[in-house]
Amino acid sequence: MLKELMNKKDIDRALTRIAHEIIEKNKGIKKLCLVGIQRGGVHLAGRISSKIRQIEKKVTPVGSLDIAFYRDDLNIRKEQPLVRRTEVPFEITDFKIILVDDVLFTGRSIRAAMDALTDLGRPAAIQLVVLIDRGHRELPIKADYVGKNIPTALSETVEVQLKEEGFEDRVILMKAAGEEEQGA
């Protein structure tokens, strides 16, 4: 069973708010760059950068980060990780890094991303943006900027679908088969 949690307008509104919050918290955008976690985080980082440019009339650098080989479940996964591109064409040392991901769940992907970032340099700070925080943390990681908090069951899946991936912009909650009958 599918349930739409956010539509195109909701996503755009959340990203606009997040862009304003980033500017306010950092008192501008000096020495600030965005790095999106492959895949969805990269697209969201690009959109946030565009919104910051509209507000501040300045460009904020955007990079992409692949965390495939930094994951702590590499040795227990059945399939090999799909390796994507890390492209951070700017210096991160002494910069504030705004790390962007689509869904925050256990926190393990964010831990892997921080490890990958520190291999590239020593940021002045790392702040986290997520479109969806669905709870169930296994590590002490908390987002600085959240589009929407969505309490979920462990059996449910949250999927962010974006136009850059060939979908209509939306966030959907997928319930496990048979779950809706059990809860009734």
Name the features.
3-stranded antiparallel β-sheet; globular; 4 helices; 184 residues; Rossmann fold; alpha/beta; 5-stranded parallel β-sheet
What would you say this structure looks like, in words?
- This protein is an alpha/beta fold and 184 residues long.
- The chain contains four helices and eight strands; from the N terminus they run E-H-E-H-E-E-H-E-E-E-E-H.
- It has one domain (2-72, 82-177): Rossmann fold.
- 29% of the residues lie in helices and 26% in strands.
- The strands form two sheets. It has a five-stranded parallel β-sheet with strand order 3-2-4-5-6. A three-stranded antiparallel β-sheet has the order 1-8-7.
Per-chain topology:
Blueprint: E1 2-6, H1 8-25, E2 32-37, H2 40-56, E3 62-65, E4 96-104, H3 108-120, E5 125-133, E6 145-149, E7 157-161, E8 170-174, H4 179-183
Parallel strand pairs: 2-3, 2-4, 4-5, 5-6
Antiparallel strand pairs: 1-8, 7-8
Helix pairs in contact: 1-2
The ordered H/E elements are: EHEHEEHEEEEH
Can you list the strand order of the major beta sheet? 3-2-4-5-6
Count the E strands. 8
Distance between the termini: 14 Å
Strand content: 25-35%
What's the domain count?
A: 1
What class would the helix/strand composition place it in? Answer: alpha/beta
CATH level-1 class: Alpha Beta
CATH architecture: 3-Layer(aba) Sandwich
Q: Enumerate how many helices there are, as a single number.
A: 4
Report the mean per-residue pLDDT as an integer.
Answer: 92
Classify the oligomer.
single chain
Q: Which fold name corresponds to the CATH topology?
A: Rossmann fold
Characterize the overall form. globular
Helix proportion range: 25-40%
Uncertain residue segments = none
Radius of gyration: 17 Å
Biggest β-sheet: count, sense, barrel? 5 strands, parallel
